[in-house]
Amino acid sequence: MTNFPLVADISSYQPDEPAFFQALKNQGVKAVIVKITQGSADGDAYVNPKAKAQITNARVAGLLAVSYTHLTLPTTPYV
After folding, report:
1. Beta bridge partners of 68
2. Hey, which of 2, 11, 21, 47 would disulfide with 35, CB 3.0 to 4.6 Å?
3. What are the E-state strand segments in the chain?
4. pLDDT tens, position by position, 1-52
């Protein structure tokens, strides 16, 4: 079985304090993926208010930090 590095999916539900990201690193986490936004122009347009601090503090802790947007598509496809 292949071993993959531990990665944490982070959103506004998780803290943005440096100690949180240091604790992740101490547990063997190598990277975090931070949710930046969720929604669509026609629906909700949520922006994670902690994202900047989460990315900054993850990097300070020595973790790789990347981001993503959660897109919500309509249930009926556009034709």
Report:
1. 35
2. 11
3. 6-10, 29-39, 45-47, 64-71
4. 678 899 999 999 999 999 999 999 999 999 999 999 887 666 677 889 999 9
Which positions ≥6 away from 30 have C-beta within 8 Å? 5, 6, 7, 63, 64
- Token pair listed for 73: 């598509």
Residue 71's pLDDT is 76
Residues 6 or more apart whose CB falls under 8 angstroms from that of 16 comprise 50, 53, 54, 57
Q: What is the CA radius of gyration of the chain?
A: 15
Residue 58 pLDDT more than 80? yes
Q: Which residue has the tokens 């990097």?
A: 59
